[in-house]
Amino acid sequence: MQHHDVAIIGGGIAGLSLAHFLAPHRSVVVLEREAANGYHSTGRSAAEFTLRDNAPAVNALARISHAFMAEPPEGFAAVPLLTARGSLWIGPAGREDAVERARLAAEADGVAVVALTVEDAVRRVPFLDPGHVAAAYFDPDYWDIDVDQLLQGYARTARRAGAELIAGAELLRARHDGRRWSIETSAGTFSATVLVDAAGGWADTVASLCGVAPAGIVPHRRTAITVDLPAEIDAGALPEVNEIDETYYFKPDAGRLLVSPADETLCEASDAQPEELDIAYAVHYLEEATTLKVSRIASSWAGLRSFSADRLPVIGPAADNPAFFWLAGQGGYGILTSPAIGALAAALITGTALPEAFEANAVDPALFSPRRFRR
Ligand SMILES: Cc1cc2nc3c(=O)[nH]c(=O)nc-3n(C[C@H](O)[C@H](O)[C@H](O)COP(=O)(O)OP(=O)(O)OC[C@H]3O[C@@H](n4cnc5c(N)ncnc54)[C@H](O)[C@@H]3O)c2cc1C
């Protein structure tokens, strides 16, 4: 049985970003249950990069990650990982104050936001319904992420540095003898000094298979659909559109429009499927805010966004077994924060100093420690 310094359970963006940062320094194996990496949450996201829509500690991770994605390491990706998109924030009658408050807050953050009349907003998104939208502003600080390139970049560079990525390897049970892990999987038994739980919605399940107390990571289902746009609309030129109370959002996606009702339904970890009602909500919100009539849904899907009790990620050694490392609870921001979270986890595992950007952005890793739930 080959021994590795680190075995990572889960080949989503969390597991592979860690493998990218760790493989130059430690022997690493990534064990993924499915036949392909990124099959669950990672392959089902809206691929949005925002610097501002999350808790301050997460926004700091986003700022660190933006630098990586804007200028990835040499040979990491064949195309840019970020494409400028911008976001149009809109509100219906009665929510004008909320739109204005959000605009002023972004401006106070130093963002070059643009106050818009309803006519300006319709010029940017020609199918917006001026009878529904009462206030709007444009925030340039939103990007599309090329998630596939990012995931493949992590995988390729990790392999190049010696990491083994094994698909079809479901963790069945792991035992720690005080020195090393013996990890039973559907693809054989592996040995490792540190076991990393990067199992997304299954993070607590994996912990219990390893005899470690759960961290309280709870999956929530979110739905997205895509619909066709009228032929005269240049989808690539559209901004993302966010409703001010985050009831729904829509954005271009490969020539179509991706619409999400921003649902957040508590569920079991599973191969999440969209529910008819959530699809109907997506169509309803889109038709209410625009002049579009949806006659056909081109595609629909659902995925898991998994949260800890305080909605911050859980990164660090388990309180009850320091050889078990949590890398979970990235909720709705796991793609955009993956460079910072991967680098942070690698530094904690190797016991090396954090990159300077963490201090510059006042990131305190203790905020993410699993020990915070034990106090
Ligand atoms: C609709 C939707 C929109 C989103 N939009 C965005 C967005 O715009 N921007 C953003 O940054 N984030 C977004 N997210 C969130 C983002 O997708 C997640 O935070 C991120 O993908 C989590 O990555 P992960 O690697 O932790 O989980 P996953 O990608 O789910 O990976 C976990 C892996 O662990 C594997 N696994 C589980 N159990 C075992 C086991 N026993 N043995 C071996 N392997 C196991 C699973 O098969 C899976 O591949 C969105 C999510 C959804 C659902």
Textual characterization of the structure:
The mean pLDDT is 97. The protein has nine helices and 20 strands. It is globular. It has helices at 13-22, 56-70, 96-108, 118-124, 147-160, 203-209, 276-289, 338-350, 356-360, and strands at 3-9, 28-31, 48-50, 82-84, 87-92, 114-116, 133-139, 142-145, 164-166, 171-176, 181-185, 188-197, 218-227, 240-243, 249-253, 256-260, 265-266, 297-307, 314-318, 321-328. It folds into two domains: 3-76 and 146-216 and 310-374, 3-Layer(bba) Sandwich (FAD/NAD(P)-binding domain); 87-140 and 219-307, 2-Layer Sandwich (D-Amino Acid Oxidase, Chain A, domain 2). 26% of the residues lie in helices and 30% in strands. The two termini are 39 Å apart. By secondary structure, it is an alpha+beta fold.
Q: What is the CATH topology of the largest domain?
A: FAD/NAD(P)-binding domain
The amount of helix comes to 25-40%
Number of domains: 2
CATH architecture classification name of the largest domain:
3-Layer(bba) Sandwich
Q: State Rg.
A: 21 Å
Strands, count: 20
**CATH homologous superfamily placement of the largest domain:** FAD/NAD(P)-binding domain
- CATH class category name of the largest domain: Alpha Beta
Identify every distinct bound molecule in the structure, by name, code or SMILES: flavin-adenine dinucleotide
Per the principal axes of the C-alpha atoms, what is the gross shape?
globular
User: Which range does the strand content fall in?
Assistant: 25-35%
Could you give a short account of the major beta sheet? Answer: 9 strands, mixed
SS-based structural class? Answer: alpha+beta
- The residue ranges in which pLDDT falls below 50 over 5 or more consecutive positions are none
SSE order in H/E notation? EHEEHEEHEHEEHEEEEHEEEEEHEEEHH
Number of helices: 9
Mean pLDDT: 97
End-to-end CA span? 39 Å
